[in-house]
Write a structure and sequence with these properties.
Blueprint: E1 3-9, H1 14-24, E2 29-34, E3 51-55, H2 62-70, E4 78-83, H3 92-107, E5 111-119, E6 124-126, E7 132-135, E8 138-140, E9 149-152, H4 153-158, H5 171-181, E10 185-196, E11 201-205, E12 208-212, H6 215-229, H7 236-246
Helix pairs in contact: 6-7
């Protein structure tokens, strides 16, 4: 079964092209979904083999951009999602596939598997506090981030694809919670590590890590939090966290 990497773009530059060129060597196809308003950046990627570029010419948000592409696919395939600034190590895709198939056999069902990630702002490997180890370096978790998320098209179909109500930051949480609600698995692999950056910076205050975000990201976070507060499948713990986020307390 072929593997397709799906990447959303927003004002990409030459550094993004380097990431895509590397990624294209590791999968059967890379689908680039460009949310840059009134722009066509296809010239950046014209020499990248195995790349399909789609210019939406407006900012659809993460979920809608993904869905417009995914709903047009016919045959089941492996799907792995990335942000444009995520650099994919040589062994990442093969390790994700190996660990995904292990989880399918171990848990006797399909689902989603995320890679662990080294958070550049905090300068540390980011792992969730709440996790259950099912094998060396593989954990059952409540959610994984979008970049490095490995799954199958059939899984996304089963849960209704991405939630177009969620524009950006909370889309991965929403998807993972619906995956769990459908009695599928959500796992994370420490064997596959991606280098990733969350927000602009991390500040430490009274033992807490406080993320610094661009103003426009804060707007969408608030909007997405309000939406997820009304979802029955949103865990109570996260609803409390959303309320704290909406009152400008960052945990």
């Amino acid at each position: 079964m072929k593997t397709i990497a799906v990447v959303t773009l927003y004002f990409p530059d030459a550094s993004v092209r380097e990431n895509i060129a590397q990624l294209s060597l590791l999968v059967d196809k890379v689908a680039l979904l460009d949310n840059t308003s009134e722009a066509d950046n296809s010239n950046l990627f014209q020499n990248c083999a195995g790349v399909e570029y789609i210019a939406y010419r407006k900012n659809l948000g993460l979920s809608d951009a993904f869905n417009r592409y995914l709903c047009g696919l016919d045959e089941n395939c492996y799907i792995v999602f990335f942000d444009q600034d995520s650099f994919c190590p040589d062994n990442l895709i093969s390790q994700l596939k190996q660990d995904y198939l292990f989880c399918c056999g171990k848990l006797n069902k399909k689902g989603v598997l995320g890679s662990a990630y080294f958070e550049k702002n905090a300068n540390r490997l980011a792992l969730p506090k709440q996790k259950k180890e099912i094998a060396d370096g593989i954990y059952q978790v409540k959610s994984v981030i979008t970049s490095g998320m490995f799954t199958e098209l059939d899984v996304l179909r089963q849960v209704g694809f991405w939630n177009a109500e969620i524009f950006l930051d909370m889309a991965d949480w929403d998807l993972c919670w619906r995956v769990l609600q459908a009695n599928l698995f959500c796992c994370l692999s420490r064997n596959a590590v991606l280098t990733h950056r969350l927000g602009n910076a991390v500040h430490r205050f009274l033992g807490m890590e406080i993320q610094e975000w661009a103003v426009v990201r804060i707007y969408y976070q608030i909007r997405d939090c309000l939406c997820l507060l009304n979802k029955k499948y949103s865990p109570l713990k996260f609803k409390i966290k959303f309320i704290l986020m909406l009152t400008v307390i960052r945990l």
